[in-house]
Amino acid sequence: MINKMISKIKKLDAPIVVGLDPMLDYVPEHIKRKAFSEFGETLKGAGEAIWEYNKGIIDSTYDLIPAVKPQIAMYEQFGVEGMVAFQKTCEYAKSKDLVVIGDIKRGDIGSTSTAYAVGHAGQVQVGEKKFRGFDEDFLTVNPYLGSDGINPFIDVCKEEKKGMFILVKTSNPSSGEFQDQLVDGKPLYELVASKVAAWGEEHMGDDYSYVGAVVGATYPKMGEVLRKIMPKNYILVPGYGAQGGQAKDLAPFFNEDGLGAIINSSRGIICAYKQEQYAKFGEQGYADASRQAVLDMKEDLKQAYVK
Fold it and tell me: What are the structural domains of the chain?
C-alpha cells in the first residue's frame, strides 16, 4: 500500500491527505436539515449528516489527492451510528481509489493490539469465514507500550500489505511534557524515531517502509533531525494550516527525491467554506470551497518539496 500511496502522490503531484474530522457544527445547515427530517435530531440523524458531508468533500476532491484520514473520535462521539458513518466513509473513499489512513491512535499489548489491527486492517475469523471490519489501508499507532504493542500491528500489516504511522513527535503544544524528556542525553522522540526506523526495516516497500511516523508540522527543526534518523520511513505531518504549520517550514520533512512526507489538512479543507477567502462559495457550495482549498494547498506546498 505504501507503493500505491507514493505512486498517487507522484501522479497527482500532491503530497496531501485530507483529514475527514467532522464535528456536527461543521456540517452545513441544508445537510443537517435533510438528515434530521428523515431520522430526527438523533444519533442516527447526526451520523447521516456527517456521512453526507464527507461524501460531498470526497466527491469534490478525490481526483486531486492521494489519501484521506478519517479521525475515529469524531465518529465515536455519536456511538454506533457514528461508527456506521465512519465505515461508510472509509468504503466510499476506497471506491474512489483513495488511500484511507485510519487515524485511530491505538496501542496495547498482545491479543488486544492484534484485535485492534485485525478490526481496522485485517480479517476476523467467524466460523469458517473471514470478514473485514473497517478495512483501512494505514493506521496511526501509539508506541507507548513498546514493541509488545507494535509487533502485532506489523504482523497484520505484513499479511495484508498495509501500513501504519507511529506517533513520534505530535503537533500539540503540550507534547513536550513527555516526548521532549531526555533519556541518556537524547529526547524521547529521537529514541522512538530510532525504533520506528528499526521496525520499518522489517516491512519494506520498494523504496520506503510500510511503517511510517507522525511528526507535527509545528516542529520543523525537530523534523529535520527525525528525517535523518528515519530516511526510509514516510512521515505523516499534521498541524499544517489551522494548527499553525506553514509550507515554508515543511522542507525538512521531505527527502532529496521530493518524497518522504504526506501533509495533512483537516479543518483548513473540510471547513474551507467558513473561511473569508472562500466565503463566495457559501454553505451550499461547501464542497467546491474544499476543492479550491486543496488546489491552493497543492500550490502552497510546492515551496517545500520542489527542488
Answer: 2-305 (3.20.20.70)
User: Cell triple for residue 248?
Assistant: 515554508
Closest CA to 269 of 12, 19, 68: 19
Longest Cα pair distance anywhere in the chain, in angstroms?
60
pLDDT in tens, the chain (307 residues): 899 999 999 999 999 999 999 999 999 999 999 999 999 999 999 999 999 999 999 999 999 999 999 999 999 999 999 999 999 999 999 999 999 999 999 999 989 999 999 999 999 999 999 999 999 999 999 999 999 999 999 999 999 999 999 999 998 889 999 999 999 999 999 999 999 999 999 899 999 999 999 999 888 888 899 999 999 999 999 988 755 567 778 999 999 889 999 999 999 999 999 999 999 999 999 999 999 999 999 999 988 877 5
Give the catalytic positions in this structure: 105
Measured distance CA(286)–CA(272) in Å, rounded = 7
Q: Which residue has the cell 466510499?
A: 92
Report if pTM > 0.90. yes
Specify the 3-state DSSP secondary structure of 179.
helix
Contacts of 279 (CB under 8 A, 6+ apart): 273
- The alpha carbon dihedral of 123, 53, 12, 223 has a sign of negative
User: What is the C-alpha separation between 235 and 124, in angstroms, rounded?
Assistant: 29
The three three-digit cell numbers of residue 128, written as one number: 469458517
Helix then strand then coil, % of the chain, to nearest 5: 50, 20, 30
